[in-house]
Design brief:
Elements lengths: L5 H12 L23 E4 L6 E6 L3 E4 L13 E6 L4 E9 L3 H16 L5 E11 L3 E10 L5 E6 L4 E9 L5 H20 L2 E2 L1
Antiparallel strand pairs: 1-2, 2-10, 3-4, 4-5, 5-9, 6-7, 7-8, 8-9
Length: 197
């Protein structure tokens, strides 16, 4: 014989067993603490370059010896490597022979920056204008992109200089934001102290 209270008892047991408990979720992966180096700047004055600026003492100048399997287009191609932050500012200099050279270099700079628009969440261009006929454009690119900042400088007649910042790690904009802001200050110092020789 079936008990008439069986469905009620089953419901009560089910209800009691569904009592709310704290669910423990695994913690998200932590990122290592970054120990930022002390800000101190030194003069860049390499004999193979017709430019000068100030750069952080903790960066290393590494002259480019190869461009793919060939020599660089100019001896003044180098990287400012920042090993402690796993970053590199790739720098290249081009002499300008005529107006078509300048137009081509500017177009190339816009195209290289524009390639990141596919993954960019934010893209902005800033006009740069410093004393000593140092003018150019900075491209700031946010999101899952390989390079958060690129720039070019020129005097419009003889010189063209281009830079792009890369970090040698997986792109995680949120975790890299403090590092990027730290290095961005160094780039701002480089730009504001830049001069043609």
């Amino acid at each position: 014989m079936k008990n008439k209270y069986t469905p009620v008892i089953a419901f009560l047991l089910f209800f009691i067993s569904c009592k709310e408990e704290n669910l423990y979720l695994p913690k998200p992966r932590l990122y290592p603490k970054v120990n930022f180096p002390t800000k101190e700047y030194i003069d860049f004055s390499e004999s193979y370059c017709k430019i000068g600026f100030r750069y952080p003492k903790y960066a290393e100048v590494v002259k480019d010896e190869y461009f793919f399997d060939d020599k660089p287009l100019d001896p003044c191609w180098f990287d400012l490597s920042i090993p402690s932050l796993n970053g590199t500012l790739h720098c290249s200099y081009f002499p300008i022979r005529d107006r078509s050279d300048l137009d081509e270099l500017i177009t190339d700079s816009y195209e290289l920056a524009g390639k990141h628009n596919i993954k960019a969440e934010y893209y902005n261009e800033y006009v740069l204008d410093y004393p000593g006929n140092v003018k150019g454009v900075m491209f700031e690119i946010e999101g899952d992109v390989a390079t958060p900042v690129q720039f070019f400088l020129s005097d419009s007649t003889n010189h063209f200089f281009r830079g792009s910042l890369y970090f040698q790690n997986q792109v995680r904009p949120d975790s890299m934001a403090p590092v990027y802001e730290f290095v961005r200050q160094d780039i701002d110092t480089l730009l504001s102290t830049f001069y043609w020789q």
